[in-house]
Structure prediction request, 376 residues.
Amino acid sequence: MGALTGVRVLISAAAARMGGARAHLLGLVPEFAALAPEDHVLLIAQPDLIAELPALPSTWTVRADRSQERGPFKQLIWEQRMLPRVATRWRADVLLSFGSFLPLGASCSTVLEAGNALPFTRAYWQLIEKSPVRVQVQEGLRWLLLRASLRAATRILVPTRAMRQDVVARLPEVGNRIDVALWGVASFFHHLRWSEPGSTDSVVFGVSKHGINKEFDVLVRAVARLDARLVMTGTPEESRWSRESAALAERLGVGDRVCFAGDLPNRSVADLIQQSRLLVFPTWCESFGLPLAEALAMGAPAVAGNIPACREVGGDAARYYTPGDPTSLCDAISELLADRMAASDLAQAARERGAHFQWRRNAEEVYATLQRAAAA
Prediction:
C-alpha cells in the first residue's frame, strides 16, 4: 500500500484514555508508522499513553495533551475551537479523531473512529431515562454532538459489521461513508498459548471495565451456583457497578469465592487467562469485544454475551449466554468446566480464529480509509 504522499495527518487521541480506544491507539500507531514511515503525522495523546509507545519515525510529531485536567465543558470547547486551529497550523489534510466527536468547523477532511455502541441502542436510553435529570441532559447533548459529528465526517471507522449496522439503524444517511476496520490484540496474546491449568481449582476469569453495559452482577449470580472461584478485573471502588457486584457476592454468601484482581495491565490479564479454566466476557452491548478477542488469540475457552458484535468476533470458537440471564450463563460455564474435551476443542478453534486479530491488518484498513478521505 502506497504512502499518503504529501498528505499530512493529524491524529486527535486525547480522549483515548482507557478501554478499547486506548488499546486501539497503542496497537495501531506502531503499525501505522511502520506502514508509512515517510508520512508526516501529528499525534495528540495523553502523556501516560505516549510513554507506552515505541520510538516513532522522525516524521512523527507527538504532543502531550492533559484533557483529563479539564472539565467536560472545557474539553468540548478545546475540541471545537482549538483543535481546528491546531489542524490549520499543522496544515493537516486529514484529521483522525479517536474521541466520540469531531471539530465541526475543521477545514480539512475528517475521519471519526466510532467505537461506542451504547448510544445507538434503545436499552441504553431506557436506562438513561431512569437517571437523574442532570445525566439525561448531559447524555442528550452528547448524542446531539455525536450525531452532528457522524454527519459531518468525511469517513467513519467502526470495528465490526455489527457496529456499522447499529449506526446505520439510527443514521441511515451516513451508511455509505462507514468503513469496517477489525481491531487487533497486543502481539503477546498471540505468542502465549493457553493450556488447561494443572490445579484442580475451577477458576473463572471475568474481564472488562465495570460499566453500564457489563453484567458482572449476572456473572456473580451464575458463579454462586457453581463449585468455582471467580476472579474479576477491577476493584470494588472502581464504579457503582463494581460496588454492586461486590455487595451482591456478600449477600449471596460467596464473598470468599469472588475476588477483584485490580486494574491490570494487559500482560497481567494474559497471565490470569493462563491460570483460569475459562474467560467470561459479561456484556449486553459492544462495538467489538476486546477481552474476547484476546482470549481467542491465546486459544482460551471463552463465554460471552450473545450479541451481534461478540458473535462476529467469536464465531463458533466461543460459547454464548443470553444477556441478563444468570441461568443461561451458569449453564454455559458449567458445560466447559464439566466437559474437558469440549473445552479443549473450543480452545483449538479459538486459537485459529484469534489469529485474525492483528493490528497490522487494522492499520492497513485505517490507512485505506485515510486515503479515501484525503481524496474526497
Observations:
- The first strand starts at residue 8 and ends at 13.
- The CA atoms of residues 341 and 347 lie 10 Å apart.
